[in-house]
Sequence to fold (323 residues):
Amino acid sequence: MRPRVVVTRRLPEEVEARLAQRFDAVLSPDDRPLAPEDLVEAIRTADALLPTVTDRLTADVLGAAPRRARILANFGVGLDHVDLAAAAANGLVVTNTPGVLTDDTADLALTLLLMVARRAGEGERHLRAGEWTGWRPTQLLGTRVTGLTLGIVGMGRIGRAVAARARGGFGMRILYCSPRALAPEEEARLGAERRGLEALLAESDAVSLHCPGGPATRHLIDAPALARMRPGAFLVNTARGQVVDEGALVDALARGAIAGAGLDVYEDEPAVHPGLLARQDVVLLPHLGSATTAARRAMGDLAVDNLEAFFAGEPPPDLVAGP
Ligand code: 8YV
Fold:
């Protein structure tokens, strides 16, 4: 019998076709996030789940008994929506999709930085509102990005890809903060200097977040952290919304403590703090980090590769947690 796999959201056509060919795949009928009771039902009745960031796989859901599921093949690299300890304690293997979304997510971080520094969102809104009366030497003057000091919080694959772009393309000076130092050759390649978080915040003209989400980084960027940033600095977040205290960010922007923010992720998606929606100096995107056709196909393929390996009795290539 083919393993039964519950796929929680619509995936690219080719990926759904591959799933349907190899597995007894239960594809999403309406592309809506599953409610906790639907996730419990899936854990009880399917051999595997292919979830996304919109599925909250809590200890309660993962502990549902009697349980049939043995693997969660997550579509995405971040796993803060999965209680990994509860998954392991309940005998579930967890895999993710690293590597294939690195470049696209790094590109989006740079997009946000360029947009907020050059007031691109503000300019587009102005034009579409029919308010543009023609070119003026002093219209919508922004900040030059060439040569800025960029502080990168979290120097994993995506952080390093941002550093390479910022240094190679824009001549930026790169600071980074990370639990582990890069190898000296990698630091030299990226021209990156390691700092503690406080020093990085104080020295950077722009700060881009690339750390994992979850309890360890919740509100890492809080009111005191924002107060350490430069008045002209920009904050970019393509990591997880919970890393930033949104209320504190709104206050910091209102006081002019920082110059602007570019956000792709939010504390309570899809809700966005009304104080952010009201501001012109904030660029807001709807969690588009890995939203390219190439990345989403590759993410789907990796998730299926992990399922195939697991059900063939082999170690899944992207094993994150397990019993
Ligand atoms: C995805 C992401 O859009 O991979 C991640 O962690 O945040 C994004 O690439 C999302 O997680 C898909 O589940």
About this structure: The mean pLDDT is 98.
